[in-house]
Amino acid sequence: MITILFCLLFLRATLAFQSLAPSSEKNETVSPSQSCTCEAFLPDTIFPMGELELLEKSSLQISHKLELEISKIELFESKLIIYMDKIVNLTLLIGIMEKDPDSYTEVQIEEVKIQIKQIEALIVELQASIEISVTVLVSIRKEITSMIVILTRLETTYDKNLVLLTRREYIKLQQKLEECERRHNEIFDPNIGSCDHGFISRLSKPIISHLNAHLNAGHRYGGWGKDSNPLHGFENMYWYSGSSNTLVSQVNVYADYYRLIMRQPMKTHELYTSRDWRGLGNNYVVRGNTVYYQFREPFSMGKFNMTSQTAEYRVVPSASNKFSYFYSANQNLDFAADENGLWVTYSTGGSKGKLVLGKIDEAAFALKEVYEMNIYKPSVGNAFMVCGVLYATRSVDIKTEEIFYTYNTHTRKESYVSIPFEKFQETYVYLDYNPTDQKLYMYNDGYYVSYHVWFHQNKNKVQVLI
């Protein structure tokens, strides 16, 4: 690239030199056996070639650093999956031992303690690596920002066409850095609350956190996740509700992820005490310390305020309880929360089972806008909302699920896409996005499962992931 630029500059300098030569100067003919040479001095007032060469060298170094960081992040991802598996297995073992401690010898208990210490050491090691990676990424961003400033100055001061090629290279570096930081942030420090991106491009491999808090594979119905709009002081809170059927009777809340894994709820909210506030289906979300769910009787939208311990319901006009998702019964009113607020999906008799989306006015607890779609709800595995866009899934095979449909409420346009992702097990009953960490939470045959979400950089442009 620098060679091309130099040739262009040399040609311009030669032409300028010839045009400035005195007319009285004698012209001479050069024979074919002779060569004509000349020296051209290009001061910085014409173009700072030395500065550009230094920038190119720096770009190569930065590119190398970024490649190293991307490989590290890929290693972090694989290590996290391994550590999660170790923690899940160890947690299950400890749970079994707690039920019958007398059946285990001191040697066996000591072996478990050693395993715990080994995992702690692995986590400390990973944390140290992450901190170093963060420092390097911050340093790289500063370097690229500084160089973009220099290139912008060169572009405005000198010939734009000569700087353009170099500037494009730096923009590519900047994009690579953003992708690297994005991947890092999605794992360790999500940039939450922003919709300055395009549609979903892909999902990570499933991250298996734990068997449900009951440690019972029979509790295959339920859901889990985080508050999508947490109250102050409850930002780290998790919730879980699970059952052996689709009846929703209680919700457990946990102070943080550690206590969720250790099955130490700070509160268990019963929905069947002095009054019957129970629900149906696996279609709830927690927002503002309030559970939004399908009320059982009458069939309606329900919300249970975990702060005041009170519940209320609203009947949805025309909503039918005859159309559920493919994987589970009674998911007739499916709640979702994203960066734009609270939503509910359902079907009506008039729509003949096609999906309908309602935007909920949270203060009035009523629908304020309704969107009708062209997909048959019973053919859909599940649906969730991200930045005002509905994503619907379906089964591909026993190991693969696919986001196959989107509906953009901003443009009222629907699209068919193909974004496959791996399932932990064949069937699942709960799938919802959380805007506080930009992750998908799945309840898969009794297990807590989650996914990191990647977005396209080009806003409002649907792309098919091959």
Features:
466 residues, alpha+beta, Neuraminidase, 2 domains, four-stranded antiparallel β-sheet, 29% strand, globular, disordered C terminus
Number of domain modules: 2
Unreliable stretches, pLDDT < 50, 5 or more residues?
1-32, 35-45, 161-165, 460-466
Give the DSSP E fraction (strand runs of 2 or more residues).
25-35%
Q: CATH topology of the largest domain, what is it called? A: Neuraminidase
Main sheet summary: 5 strands, antiparallel
Regarding quaternary structure, how should these chains be classified? single chain
Measure the end-to-end span. Answer: 32 Å
For the secondary structure, the number of strands is: 23
Basic shape: globular
**How would you state the average pLDDT, rounded?**
79
Order of helices and strands: HHHHEEEEEEHEEEEEEEEEEEEEEEEE
Alpha-beta content class: alpha+beta
CATH class designation of the largest domain: Mainly Beta
Number of helices: 5
| CATH-defined architecture of the largest domain | 6 Propeller
Task: Characterize the structure shown.
- With 466 residues, this protein is α+β, with helices and mostly antiparallel strands.
- It folds into two domains: 49-188, no CATH class; 200-455, 6 Propeller (Neuraminidase).
- The protein is 33% helix and 29% strand.
- Helix 2 (49-99) runs antiparallel to helix 3 (106-157), helix 2 packs parallel to helix 4 and helix 3 (106-157) packs antiparallel against helix 4.
